[in-house]
Amino acid sequence: MNHGNKVNHLGRTSSHRKAMLSNMAGSLIIHKKITTTVAKAKELRKFVEPLITKAKDNTTHSRRMVFSALKHKEPVKELFGEVAAKVADRPGGYTRILRTGNRLGDNAELCIMELVDFNETYTTGKKAPAKTRRKRAAGTGAKKSVEKPAKEAKTEEVVAAPAHEDEVKPVHEEAAPEVPQTEQPEEGTPDIEGKTESAEEAI
């Protein structure tokens, strides 16, 4: 059973595995992005992230420790120069694994491993939500401020409406009495005639 075995040997001897991870770490530091399998990328993350943390402290001791792991001057120079300046404010999590599918030959799961701060697409995407959140917070206030003038405009319209109604009411009031006056006499005349006829018949 494989209980308690937290190290993935990757089917290699200890010396072969250390040499492979050292080369992969150097390639990642120089090119900022490599394509590999997910299993190797997970082991490489454990290997390279402590080195990046050491690079934040630019001392002779830390340079010697990193050089003993990478074995080459170029990645050490790049790590303590450009990379350390980029990741100075980041408290860990310097790498990102993006899965890209399976390999045709052995169906191994492939991925792209990259340094987080050197991907402009993802870094701009991360900064944008923070700005949009601020805009949303400001936007809600802006909406409220926009709604208030709208309500004021409605109240102004309501205040202005009675003036128009007052102007229109006299016209309707004048027209209203004319119609009943013309209708009342017409209705009243037959009643009066009927009454006169009934009076004559009574006589």
Strand content: 5-15%
| Structural class by SSE content | mainly alpha
Largest sheet: 3 strands, antiparallel
Cross-sheet strand order for the largest sheet: 1-3-2
> In whole angstroms, how far apart are the ends?
133 Å
| Rg from Cα | 44 Å
Shape descriptor: globular
Q: Provide the residue-averaged pLDDT.
A: 77
Contiguous runs where pLDDT drops below 50 for at least 5 residues: 128-132, 171-176
Number of H/I helices: 5
Could you give the order of the helices and strands? HEHHHEEH
Kindly state the number of beta strands: 3
Helix content: over 70%
Write the layout of secondary structure elements.
Elements: H1 14-31, E1 33-37, H2 38-55, H3 60-70, H4 73-86, E2 95-102, E3 109-115, H5 120-202
Antiparallel strand pairs: 1-3, 2-3
Helix pairs in contact: 1-2, 1-4, 3-4
Task: Provide a descriptive summary of the structure in words.
This protein has 203 residues and is mainly α. The protein has five helices and three strands. It has a three-stranded antiparallel sheet with strand order 1-3-2. Helix 1 packs across helix 2, helix 1 packs across helix 4 and helix 3 packs across helix 4. The N and C termini lie far apart (133 Å).
